[in-house]
Recover the amino acids of this structure.
């Protein structure tokens, strides 16, 4: 039984491991996954570096975009979690990336809801940030369903676009 630190009804979360490179390559190497987060896709070297940044973030800050797996069979679904934002150490960014074979099954909403609960509970954050490519309608709908409120548009270098940006504040 895998050692998941966080579970939802159907998903288990654990930190990225060095031996997870094949999972990272499959996820962030898929043009359908990355089409809204970068202009040109990611090279293998960039994916290796991304995996190392995720692992370093977990080690130093206790957050990352954690890989998620189906509890029923251990199949890798994608990743969902938090990452630090430059200049905003107490307002991490929520993100979710799901492999296309798992789209339209509610996993993004389920995973993001679990991460939000974890962020506001065990991790003690008061506010979360999220943004999305202006062409990514599914992400806009997801953030709305999660209760995020649009605050501004923000330039995102990897796409060269102004991304709608949102916050979610913990209710006391």
């Amino acid at each position: 039984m895998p050692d998941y630190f966080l579970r939802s009804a159907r998903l288990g979360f654990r930190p990225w491991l060095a031996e997870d490179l094949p999972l990272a390559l499959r996820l962030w190497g898929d043009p359908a996954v990355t089409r809204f987060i970068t202009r040109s896709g990611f090279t293998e070297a960039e994916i290796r570096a991304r995996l190392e940044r995720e692992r370093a973030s977990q080690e130093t800050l206790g957050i990352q975009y954690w890989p998620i797996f189906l509890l029923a069979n251990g199949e890798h679904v994608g990743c969902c979690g938090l990452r630090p934002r430059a200049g905003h150490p107490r307002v991490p960014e929520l993100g979710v990336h799901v492999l296309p074979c798992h789209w339209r099954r509610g996993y993004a909403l389920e995973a993001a809801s679990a991460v939000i609960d974890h962020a506001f509970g065990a991790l003690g954050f008061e506010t979360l940030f999220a943004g999305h490519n202006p062409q990514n309608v599914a992400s806009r709908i997801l953030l709305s369903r999660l209760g995020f409120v649009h605050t501004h548009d923000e330039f995102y270098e990897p796409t060269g676009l102004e991304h709608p940006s949102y916050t979610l504040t913990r209710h006391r």
Observations:
- The radius of gyration is 15 Å.
- Residues 126 and 171 are 8 Å apart (CA to CA).
